[in-house]
Each structure stands twice: as C-alpha cells, then as structure tokens.
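Recap slide: Outer dense fiber protein 3-B, sequence and predicted structure.
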Amino acid sequence: MSGTDVWVGSWRPHKPRGPIAALYSSPGPKYALPGATGLNYHDPRKLKAPAFSFGTRHRQFSSDCSPGPGYLVPSNITRIGRDGTPAYSLYSRPNDPQLFQTPGPGRYSPERSGKSAYYSAPAYSLSARSKGFRNDQTPGPAAYMLPSVLGPATVNKTSAPNFSLRGRSKIGSFHEDLQKTPGPGTYRVVDPCTYKHKPPHYSMTGRNSMPGDTTRKPGPGAHHPEQVTFTRIKPPSFSFGIRHSEFIAPLIVNLAE
C-alpha cells in the first residue's frame, strides 16, 4: 500500500491559509464574573440595592431664584403690583413677514421620480469579494471522526451484551453470618396513636396564682383616730424643758475628799 492511498480524493495536507480556532486552546477561567457591588457592570443575577450619590452643591438651582433682601425695591412697586401710569417705548417698524412662495407647475420633475412611481428592472452591482469569505477554511475529510463501533456506547450499531466480573457478595451466600441479624429489640414499637384514635393528653404543671393586687393594705389597728387634729380644734400643748442661761455658772462637783 503506497502513501498516496492514505488520502481520499485529491485532498492533501497543507498549511492553513488563515487562523483556525482548533489550533488555539481555550483561555480557561480568564473571564471574571460581573461584580455584585456598585451601579455600573452589576451582576444581573443578583439583587441591586438602592444607590445614592454624593454630589456637589449647586450654585444656582434655577434662573429665577430670589436675590434675597440685598436688592433695592423700586418706589413704584407695591404689594398689589406696579403703581403708576402706563409707559410706552418707541421702536422701529418691524419687517413684513415673508409670504410662502407656492411652487408652480414647472418646479416639479415627474420623470425623475424613479422607483417611487414607476416599475423598474432589477439592478445588480459588481463589487469585490468581501473579506469575510477569505478566512473560511473548509475542513477536509480527515477532520471528521466517525463514532466507535466497540463497546456499549455505540450510536447507530447494535452492541452485544456486556458482562462484568465482580467479587462474591456475602449477603445471601453460603458463608453469610446469620448471627448479625437484628433481634426483636432492634425494632421500635409503633405508637398506637398512629393507627388508632388518639386520646386526650394532659400535663401536670404548677399551680398558677390568680392575678390581683399584691400590695399590703393597713388593718384597723394601724390607724389612730384620737391623734387626728385636722378636723377638730386642737388644745394648746406645752412642753417642760430645762431653762438655759449663759450667765449661770457650771456646777463644779469636788470629787476630792
């Protein structure tokens, strides 16, 4: 078999005349995901919170803002408007407005209407070949790969049954250890309330005191009506004290015997 029988038809391997995408590898994780902060270039899959900007103070919000109390009010201006006789000014006579000049019948050229008013034959133009067709490299026969006919993953062929060899399982075999089977205590008893009528349940809690006033109230023995002098006449009261004087000599007791 000669080397010329390998290729199909007249196609032979040659150097590509332009760039082919298959010759370059993928850039990988080179492209970054859009950010979740800021206003511009925000990730459309994420929620965007309201954004507020801090701007500079404007010098003048509008052209008709008030100048404040720093200007002089004319004497003929009152609270109801301008006071005084009407004033007139002398101006030159305005120019006459130019009238619209209606075009006559000779201003129209119906023979130049072209395709808008008459049927016209198709017209074709000759131009150079665009640059986009020069880079279109049609792949050769060797660029295509037929699917494999071996194994279970065949596309258009019927595959034979496949068998795999694995180790023997201990479950269900002759050397299975039956002592490891669960006993009766392994299973949890089902609550009868699941498949029967559920009786009422009561809980034992502490006694709760009734709400009320917990402040201490004075009894009958805590009051002294005989000491009340606000609703009756009070007699004068005198106290017996010791008379003091700065001229009385102090008592000197001679303790020496």
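DSSP finds no helices and two strands in the chain.
The first strand starts at residue 77 and ends at 78.
(End of recap.)
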